[in-house]
Predict the structure of ABC transporter domain-containing protein.
Amino acid sequence: MDGANSKNKFYAIKGGSSATLQYHQSKLHSKLQCDSDVILRWNELNYEVRLGTKGNQQQRTILHGTSGQAKTGEIIAIIGSSGAGKTTLLNALSGRIVGGRLSGQILFRGAKRHPGSFKRVTAYVQQDDLMHPLLTVQETLSYASKLRLPNNQYSAEQKAERVNTVIRQLRLEAARNTKIGDAATRGVSGGERKRVSIGTELLTDPRLLFLDEPTSGLDSNSSELVVELVKKVSVEQGLAALMTIHQPSARIFNIFDKVILLSQGRVVYFGPTSTAIEYFANIGYQCPVHENPADYFTDLMTLDYRSDDALARSKIRVNELSNRFAGYASLQPDYPGNGRKQLAMQLPADDDPASKCPTSHNSWFYEYATLARRDWVNIIRNTSFFLSQMVQPLVMGLFMGFMYFVLGNDSVSVQNRLGVLYIIVVQGTFPIFMPQLAVFSAEQGITTRERASASYRASTYYASKTTTFIPIALVANTIFYACIYFISGLALSVDKFFIGLALFHGLTSVSISLMFVFGAAVQSVEVAYVLSTGVITTQLLYTGLFANFHTVSQALRWIRWLNPVYYAYAALAQNEFRGMDLTCSKDMQCYESGDQVVKSYGLDQFTIGQNGLFIVAIGAIFYVGGYACLRWKAKPKFTWI
Ligand SMILES: Nc1ncnc2c1ncn2[C@@H]1O[C@H](COP(=O)(O)OP(=O)(O)OP(=O)(O)O)[C@@H](O)[C@H]1O
């Protein structure tokens, strides 16, 4: 549908002569023939969700037969009051709708969309600007270009040039070296942040750009700049941009080529912005001269809940508006949704050239190396995390070492040695787990966004996280172990030192694998904290120190088999006590040898080697589990038609 001759079309609706109607229909029909620049067309889209509990389920229709189309170079706004279905429509069109039942037809360049290739040619800018806060604007775009642009089409110089072009296009030169920032770190302004978000999506030179509320939270100048720049880029790059927007200012409203006005999931108007006022005037709703048309239309489309009467009146009005538009649209031969069956039959199922694109851009190693470099930069700049990981073990190692300074060989030292070993296993759990969970969980929004746009494989991301989190923890824990080992005076021998260290590192790695499971599987970091605290505390209670396994109730004894902390503690105890001669004091329980200690605490079930194998096996299960959760969670299951 075009703005040309729209006035005559209104006469047709209002009962103009059939000759006039035929004239417009034939003119618009011929226009349809040369609509090769239609990039996206959607016909009679319906979206339904099930609400309520089992046994009391209700169906709710959120989109009711919406149709429309977008052409290259166009910028289209989806406007409506809160809950009108704007985001639902945007998500349906961009292939990012989760759950529910979507029906109707969406055609990309006249053909059915192919999920893998459609992702490659579309870009989606989320409402929340999820980016790494410690990277600069330049770095953010540069890593995005490395990850998202294929090496077989872009050299390193061309990628750098692409970044520069986007920085220029989005007027980000001044902020180039400023960090993105977040609530804790001051960074770029809200408008700049939004432009960087858009920039990361524009790098791939998409054909379709979807933006969810790109102006929300911005002042009017920044909002206008964002919309103006999207318009400029759409024209320059020949892409179609669709954005949801809440009550834009009159100036912003006029930047859009077309608008989709939605109310209660129904289209109230779809067409050129320039003729919207005229359309509404022709059906009896004249926008006052000095009123912002976007505000006027939004008011018309909004249900008024102030009283029962007002609600009933507004419902009638909204129904009338959507029915009038349905009547108007049905007279337009080129209006999407009309002649849908014919269109579907004419088109091949999947003739989109992009459907031949590979699912991943670059080699596994290149992707991994890029992600690992980005992770290391982030970790080193995250001072509080870095210090917590490096300084805490040093301080704790010194503090605990001096608390047990130079252990003796009498019965008292047995209690102390068991205490030192316990502190070692505790250090292999909470102090590593919690800060790493905080960092890993905080990133999951970014990961989901990047994975949704197929920026990298789950496996390269997981490998990168493994090779950043585990080495940091192992270095930190080596410092801790060396301090506590030498200062407290655990059994001194090269073998014992390294066997103990290996067991400690094994336990640390298992804790990190468990952290991956919680971080990837549980969406809310608070819930992940609560659940993991319960699991780790249980592990720490079932080491054999607080309750001898031979006396633990049969119903709970199985916990030991799944408990890496038990295996680590038993092996550390054997490593420490085996072969040790102890002196007896009269007034205490007397152990003559270290072997007796191990036996009496029930820590002799398996050899050191067997305990080590159990640790490795449990670690492997957690590690694979973490990967499975990441794949399953970080890749949302979108509903496709
Ligand atoms: N999966 C779903 N399950 C249940 N209700 C849903 C679902 N998706 C959307 N809705 C409902 O559909 C309506 C439209 O949602 P949508 O997010 O598209 O509105 P919107 O116009 O973007 O609103 P806002 O401007 O407030 O973001 C809302 O009432 C929302 O609660």
